[in-house]
Amino acid sequence: MPPAANPESDSQHKLRQEINSRSCKDHTVKSVQDSTVSRDQFAIVLDSLISLNSRSSQVSYHGDQCSHSADHCIFQNRSLGCSCIDHTQKCSARYTANGSHPCRDWFYDRKHVNPNLGLDDYLFTDNYYYQFIEEGEDVAYDEVFFPDLQQRLTEYFNTNDAPLFSFNVTYQGHGPYNMERTYWGDSYCTGDYSQSTLNALNNYFYLVQDSSAYMKSFTQYLDSLDEPVVLLLYGDHKPWMGNHGVIYEGMGISLDTTTEEGFRNYYSTWYMIWGNQAAKDLLGQDFQGQGPDLSPCFLMNEVFELIGWEGSAYMQAQRETAHTLPVLHTTGWAEENGVLTPTPSPAAQARMEEFQNLSTYDRTRFE
User: Fold this and answer.
1) Average pLDDT for residues 260-265, to the nearest whole number?
2) Do 108 and 56 meet the contact criterion of CB atoms below 8 Å apart?
3) Are 149 and 171 in contact (CB under 8 A)?
4) What is the pTM of this model?
5) What are phi and psi of 98, to 5 degrees?
6) Among 67, 71, 114, 190, whose CB has the most other CB atoms within 10 angstroms?
């Protein structure tokens, strides 16, 4: 007898059994204190802006650079990232999923990519922010971005009962930074560096300060809401610091990714998970403490685990990998048993391959 068309391989069968064996029927969620909470009560707002950069966290393959915290960071990954919304989770929870990026929609083909990430409604310069900027300009900066985001969230909460997932990406701090002159003074960085390095750093740090002020105001607004809100802030890549990292080199910062120091310097960025007072009261969670180093594909799992949500079958399987190998990278680096290594064990490599297969299966075959 000839084989059936498109037979399922043993590995695919194993993955299907693993997924289907996990419970995803109960759509209530529990707080960390085991009190039953409806997902309908939650808004999750994501902002990609720590170190004030703007490329999508799922396509950070240029490896641009920014500040690093060894204790609280994510390692950008060229292919092991997952979509920012798990579709099973989104559908079962009946979330509205939207977002904004005040730049052109053709950049990284976001106009077509974002809907495939599950973002139903997305605002760009081309379809929205053009009205706030001069004709011919490509970008709206934070003086537009944050007040407008606040206004749109207020309108949403006043007119909708559905929970909200909003993925918003600021542009303001994105490089390149002028190395020939400063625009906002030269007091932010006064070290013993070349004039071109000082110019770039002073321009960059002013933008950091300005965006930080807007973010402070934004969190104060969120804290005033009766609606529980969880805010995830992260940098999706390092800031540009001269072609070929010349400014980093001038500051003595290694970008040699064959060493642990260089790998961390090149790929890691900070993240922060914050909850407004309404979320703290609802969950009994103070959102204090130090988070683990992890790959960006595990960020949403970290949020769910912090607020006591189980997630879909795929997220449960993903969480098992995150607990074993919280950092995965296509250069071969992984964190195993608390140690970042370029040569993970055969068992870790097998787990990495299984995770990639599981992700592929979930995207292409699982319904």
Assistant:
1) 94
2) yes
3) no
4) 0.77
5) -145, -170
6) 114
